[in-house]
Amino acid sequence: MAQLNKQRILLIIGGGIAAYKCLELIRRLRDHGASVRCVMTRAAQQFVTPLSVGALSNERVLTDLFDLDDEREIGHIRLSRDADLIVVAPATADLLAKMAGGHAADLATAVLMATDKAILVAPAMNPLMWSHAATRRNVALLQADGIHFVGPNAGEMAERGEAGVGRMAEPAEILAAIAAQLAGRVIAGALAGRRVLVTAGPTHEPIDPVRYIVNRSSGKQGYAIAAAAAALGADVTLVSGPVGLADPSGVRVVRVETAAQMLAATTAALPADLAIFAAAVADWRVANAADEKIKKGAKAPLPKLDLVENPDILKTIAHLPPSQRPSLVIGFAAETENVIEHARKKRKSKGCDWIVANDVSPETGIMGGNRNTVHIVTADGVEDWPEMDKDKVAEALVARAAAHLAATTGKA
Ligand SMILES: Cc1cc2nc3c(=O)[nH]c(=O)nc-3n(C[C@H](O)[C@H](O)[C@H](O)COP(=O)(O)O)c2cc1C
Questions:
Q1: How far apart are CA 129 and CA 150, in angstroms?
Q2: What phi, psi does 28 have (nearest 5°)?
Q3: How far is CA 109 from CA 86, 169, 345, 389, in A?
């Protein structure tokens, strides 16, 4: 995870059973090149020792707001500003309440109040504590304040016989959430001078002049990606199927209806440095689409639709000769089962570089919703990103792509 290299993480450890997982988190962060400075609350020290935390982080562990030496050497204000990201794990019910209430009576809460940096919290608590009305209120307040969350997950609690939502996210998930947060912090202009092509929305495949086949894609994720790329200075063309969204500012929008039109518009928009195919292109079209409205009549036979396969836009662009192929081709895989397995196969069969995979079964609410949980499948493996707003997924994806282009094509 290139996003973690040389990043400074301030890890605030709260007083919950899950504190032991922080030891693994610290180790993984350092393996990826991040430096980790830890603040432990008084309660946290009941669960893991500052000695273990200090040994793994290779940094002095800070515990006391009123420690004269620490305050002279680092100071709680500098501590809160020196980091690239502040992570609270485990975020106990008590710590969330203090954060929501603006408390600052100990080092952990004072640092959280004094910071101007992004904060990611990994809650961990008994399911009844998590579902308690007070915690619900505190979480809503913190989310409204812009605090980012990873987890909690559903599952068995450390206490025997207790299960439900409240388990802290696993270290690997927290690591991915940290990487996604840091990827979103790229410098303005990271895509200046780059041409970016994005497809979005569904396609409409006519049955007759008034009827068509469609899918549930809203286009929100693709539009957010186009906006995020434009915000980083790219020259963006968005080829969009029919959606009810406003054009993202600073983006050239080409409107199409069918898959065949989308392929033509996509090809016409080349060359591009980066191509992201977020559209849900219909796999089939009606071969015998009627020129006139098909009439319904008591005596008329039921119409029969002959389906033929549509062109595969992602595969076509990914297989262009190197002189025409975008340097980085990213496809989306919306699946309702075996998401990662299908995405891995799709990456190979389409010849694209990355696949952004997500589970769009109706219970996820992703299709048409504002949030998304994605997995980034590359030649190197799979990154599981936490659930985020589609805007945040877009920012993180585009930032990751910008970093990849800078590293592989030599252009800054
Ligand atoms: C054995 C034990 C386990 C606990 N686990 C949790 C926990 O997982 N989550 C939580 O919110 N509180 C938990 N608590 C309660 C917290 O330790 C307590 O509310 C503490 O004041 C939180 O301190 P903090 O604000 O420094 O995190 C636990 C307490 C005990 C005795």
A1: 17
A2: -65, -40
A3: 12, 22, 46, 26
DSSP H helices, 215-351, are: 220-231, 259-268, 313-318, 339-350
Q: Which fold has domain 195-409?
A: Rossmann fold (3.40.50)
CATH homologous superfamily, domain 2-183: Flavin prenyltransferase-like (3.40.50.1950)
Q: Please name every residue paired with 292 in a beta bridge, in sequence order, or none if there are none.
A: none
What stretch of H or E contains 283?
none
Q: What is the pLDDT of residues 375-405, one digit of tens each?
A: 899 988 888 887 788 988 898 899 888 878 8
Residue 215, burial from CB neighbour count under 10 angstroms (0-12, 13-18, 19+): middle
Does residue 40's CB lie within 6 angstroms of at least one atom of ligand 1?
no
Query: What residue type is assigned to position 276 of the chain?
Result: I
Give Dmax (Cα) for the chain: 93
Å from CA of 93 to ligand 1 middle? 7
CA-proximal residue: ligand 1, atom 13 (nearest): 16
Select from 45, 92, 129, 160 the residue to mutate for testing ligand 1; criterion: most ligand atoms less than 8 Å from CB: 92
Sorted by where each begins, the domain ranges of the chain are 2-183, 195-409
Q: Whose CA is nearest to atom 17 of ligand 1?
A: 15
Give the dihedral of Cα atoms 274, 278, 284, 289; nearest 10 deg: -100
Whether this model's pTM surpasses 0.90: no
Which pair of structure tokens corresponds to residue 154?
């559903």
